[in-house]
Amino acid sequence: MTSATPFTGRELTNPPSDGISNLRFSNHSDHLLVSSWDKTVRLYDASENVLRGEFKHGGAVLDCCFHDDSSGFSASADNTVRRLVFNHEREDILGRHDAPVRCIDYSYATGQVITGSWDKTLKCWDPRGAGSETRSLVGTYTQPERVYSMSLVGNRLVVATAGRHVNVYDLRNMSQPEQRRESSLKYQTRCVRCYPNGTGYALSSVEGRVAMEFFDTSDVGQSKKYAFKCHRKTEGGRDIVYPVNAIAFHPVYGTFATGGCDGYVNVWDGNNKKRLYQYSKYPTSIAALSFSKDGRLLAVASSYTFEEGDKLHEPDAIFIRNVNEGEVKPKPKVNPNPAT
User: Fold this and answer.
1) Which of 15, 238, 249, 276 satisfies CB 3.0 to 4.6 Å to 256 for a cystine?
2) What burial class does residue 43 get, using C-beta atoms within 10 Å of its C-beta: 0-12 exposed, 13-18 middle, 19+ buried?
3) Please, are residues 35 and 23 in contact by the beta-carbon 8 Å criterion?
4) Residues 6+ apart with CB under 8 A from 118
5) How far apart, in Å, are the Cα atoms of 7 and each of 109, 190, 246?
6) Distance between CA atoms of 209 and 219, rounded to whole angstroms?
7) Angstrom distances, CA of residue 164 to CA of 167, 185, 193, 241
8) CA–CA separation, 158 vs 201, rounded Å?
9) What secondary structure, in 3-state letters, does the chain show?
10) Res 199 pLDDT > 80
């Protein structure tokens, strides 16, 4: 295992050999699923630092998610959607898109797998029909542009596409979006993640900003939204801006971490509009982040995202850090006029 300082966390052995596209903790354990441009999906036990399984695909794997601790799903640049059966290291093709599949998620509310592709469609699948696309495909829904990121909370699905479009769906009625929006950020969307409490979503861009949005369309609801600058530095009087690739919400406190191409992970208190913590710099760009189900662990993908083109860079690595309460717990607001 490569040495790591206690400030970055412990480094997992047997990391992917090419860019890490995403990583996700299980909702049931400390198992971690990792997708990569090296055409693999890897299953780790993050607590034990053990590689439990590896699946090879026909193209780069752009996203992955769990079903439960015995199976998961993957989205590949070879246009396929696959179900992965961990104990048997078996994979079945659930279906296909007409272009690389960028995003995948499993809805516990509906029991469906949802995929978003660069073919400008969303598709919903019944995982029980794996092996037969005619049995598994539930519906296809045209999007205004290529799907870049998506996120689920309860029955709500938020889809962010090229062209700064954002569609909000109710999974119980996918015939048309519940809301059609435009990103309040001026530049290309990198990541969207729903608030754990279901009231809205955070969206990041290539231009070092994060927007905090709310589903409530009333004037009062929309008055709460705001955007802020992050992952920037001033050098020689010049503002250097880094893409914000990853957002992950803490499952207990509702605070969130962001990861940027500057190699930093910051933790934010969105309600109080404050940065709570900044971790020590990682070797290269932060490509993905995920908190464990109880928020005790944070998985960090340190993986160059080619924002400066093809160049020599640090090898891809996955760090698992123990999260201290002081790093993620909101600080109480101070009453400026305490009662005497």
Assistant:
1) 249
2) buried
3) yes
4) 97, 99, 100, 101, 102, 146, 147
5) 37, 26, 19
6) 23
7) 10, 8, 15, 19
8) 8
9) CCCCCCCCCEECCCCCCCCEEEEEECCCCCEEEEEECCCEEEEEECCCCEEEEEEECCCCEEEEEEEECCEEEEEECCCEEEEEECCCCEEEEEEECCCCEEEEEEECCCCEEEEEECCCEEEEECHHHCCCHHHHEEEEEECCCCEEEEEEECCEEEEEEHHHEEEEEECCECCCCCEEEECCCCCCEEEEEECCCCCEEEEEECCCEEEEEECCCCHHHHCCCEEEECCEEEECCEEEECCEEEEEECCCCCCEEEEECCCCEEEEECCCCEEEEECCCCCCCEEEEEECCCCCEEEEEECCCCCCCCCCCCCCEEEEEECCHHHHCCCCCCCCCCCC
10) yes
Strand partners, 123: 115, 140
Rounded to whole angstroms, the Cα distance separating 165 from 97 reads: 20
**Residue 307 predicted with pLDDT over 90:** no
Q: Which residues of 166-181 are buried (b: 16+ CB within 10 A; e: fewer)?
A: bbbbebeebeebbeeb
Six token digits for residue 138: 């539930």
**Beta bridge partners of residue 228, listed in sequence order:** 210
Quick one: tokens of 263?
């190699």
Q: Which is it for the CA torsion 298, 299, 302, 306, positive or negative?
A: negative
Res 302 pLDDT > 70: yes
- Spatial strand order of the sheet with 265-269 comes to 244-249, 256-260, 265-269, 274-278
Pick the range with the lowest mean pLDDT from 199-203, 254-258, 300-304.
300-304
Give me the sign of the Cα torsion angle 209, 213, 219, 223.
negative
Number of CB atoms found within 10 A of residue 74's CB: 27
Mean pLDDT of the chain: 93
Q: How far is CA 25 from CA 18, 70, 175, 299, in A?
A: 20, 13, 31, 8
Which tokens sit at 124? 């919903």
